[in-house]
Amino acid sequence: TTQLDPSVQVSLKEKLKDIFGFSQFRGDQEAIIHNILAGINSFVIMPTGAGKSLCYQLPAISSEGTAIVISPLIALMKNQVDQMNAFGINAQFLNSTLTKAEMSKVKKDTLNGTLKLLYIAPESLTKEENLDFLKKANISFVAIDEAHCISEWGHDFRPEYRKIRGIIDNIGNLPVIALTATATPKVQLDIQKNLQMEDAHIYKTSFNRKNLYYEIRPKADAKKQLIRYIKNNKGKSGIVYCLSRKMVEEIAELLNVNDIKALPYHAGLDSQTRMHNQDAFLNEDVDVVVATIAFGMGIDKPDVRFVIHYDAPKSLEGYYQETGRAGRDGLEGNCLMFYSIDDIVKLEKFNKDKSVTERDNARHLLMEMVSYANLGVCRRRQLLSYFGEYQDKDCGFCDNCMKPTEKFKAQDEIVLALQAVLQTDQRFDAAHLADVLTGTENQYITSYEHHNLAVYGKGKEFNETVEFWCSLIRQITIYGYLDKDVDNYGVLKLSQKGQNYLNDPYSITLSKDHNYEIDEEKAEDE
Ligand code: ADP
Ligand code: ZN
After folding, report:
1. How far apart are the CA of 407 and the centre of ligand 2, in A?
2. Which residue out of 13, 26, 28, 209 has the highest number of ligand 1 atoms within 8 Å of its CB and is therefore the one to mutate?
3. Fewest Cβ atoms closer than 10 Å to its Cβ: which of 34, 128, 200, 388?
4. Exposed / middle / buried, residue 23 (Cβ in 10 Å: 0-12, 13-18, 19+)
5. How far apart are the first and last CA of the chain?
6. Residues whose CB is under 5 A from ligand 2 (ion)?
7. Closest residue (by CA) to atom 5 of ligand 1?
8. According to the model, what pLDDT value does residue 169 have?
9. How far is the CA of 438 from the centre of ligand 2 (A)?
10. What's the rounded Cα separation, in Å, for the pair 343 and 121?
11. What SS3 class is residue 305?
12. What angle do CA 209, 213, 215 make, to 5 degrees?
């Protein structure tokens, strides 16, 4: 139990008010802080803006000694250090940009226990000389921000993050709080395994962003569509994400010649220009930033009214993060993606030089993205299902809900698909199951002897195509009849609901997929 002394409870509330100026804790904040103060490992999974930072800042202030905060970006560290200092709290960061004098001040304040929060990047943490002095210090606990960087299944993998556990053990026996705004069940498991915190208390809040409207359009004549869309949202703040620096420049230019105030942002610009363009956006000197995904982390503009993906993103995690920058004030937020299979082919080419494992991972993530674009299922249900959140209703507020694709009834097809899952011992993904059902001949089918199964080729009686069966299997997964195996990515198992269904099947309404290629041609003819 994490029952704390009532006097501690009161004193935490007072600090919340006196230091941060907040009269109430939000969501699970108080419980998380109690947990940390009781020395229990905590795992916090909450969307951006939920108030994760307070979950380690306040206990750090309330504890003796120094809390270590591991953070991937200098900009993020600097923001927090400035904020804490403005509140009168001694917080500092440790990185290679510090002068000798600054460095010795950090060390002195840590060793004499006046420093409450020490921000550090994993790369600095691994340095011998830093480790030596941290071992001598009185460390209260370790916070790991952006913990998804540990996982190759996340959207910004940082190899150094994988060394964190070893380093913590080297410093001492310390409680850990890991925090992230993106965790699919797969990433969540990776984080827990890697940090050896399977025992941690998990605090997870819903990833549903109710005010965001999700929409995908075929990428035909996208430049014209883009200009029209932004003009229809005149004076509103928005972000346009592109895949390459070159495209960023081109689109920013295009918008400018069309009387839309826009600036580019990407890692190829010098830091002064980046800073200037970012400030111009925050101060509303320009309406639109055209950016690569380098733009956004740590940027807190509450009234971004639209986020446009001019090019398809690499993963649904990235997509969720990027669209999440719209409507942070809870008001209007429009998320529009232009989709074309050509972009997917391009993205696949980027993976060419990666190792086999990395390429397979990247491909899986991309295929989830493709499936999201193609399915006619409520976008929100799809997204939330990806994050392990089951919804039993359509949202009514996405393009698939408002402009539905053609529907059809299925029952015998679903029974057959579930039987295929069982007959293959619940060890395969949607694509392989579709191959089994359509009686496809390939090396996997042969090597597993799946051509001998009763269900092999049985799907042909209903529909010939692999795409049909893939889509059906993905839909019934979102609807909870199948569960994804978290340990083996993409592998599907029968859920209890699926089991019940087989015992007593009924007819379900499913959606036909989008066909963006045909839609593109139509749009071009217009
Ligand atoms: P996250 O790290 O989850 O993205 P932040 O820690 O940056 O979120 O917090 C988002 C915003 O919410 C910040 O402006 C923060 O000051 C504010 N906030 C955090 N906790 C509270 C609270 N208890 N009451 C009011 N505002 C809060
Ligand atoms: Zn919907």
Report:
1. 15
2. 26
3. 128
4. exposed
5. 65
6. 378, 380, 394-395, 398, 401
7. 51
8. 95
9. 30
10. 34
11. strand
12. 130
The atom of ligand 1 lying closest to the CA of 52 is: 3
486 CB-near residues (< 8 Å, 6+ apart): 185, 186, 188, 189
pLDDT profile of the chain (526 residues), mean per 10: 71 95 95 96 91 96 96 88 96 91 94 96 88 94 95 81 93 96 88 95 94 96 96 96 97 97 96 94 96 83 96 94 92 97 93 88 92 98 93 96 97 98 97 96 96 96 92 97 87 97 98 86 59
The residue among 320, 330, 316 whose CA lies nearest residue 296 is 320
Q: Where do we find the tokens 């440790």?
A: 94
Mutate to test the pocket of ligand 1, among 22, 33, 177 (most ligand atoms within 8 A of CB): 22
Nearby residues of 25 by Cβ (< 8 Å), 6 or more positions away: 13, 16, 33
Tell me which residues have their CB closer than 6 angstroms to ligand 1. Answer: 22, 24-26, 29, 46, 48-54
Q: How far apart are CA 143 and CA 176, in angstroms?
A: 6
Cβ pair 386, 371 in contact under 8 A: no
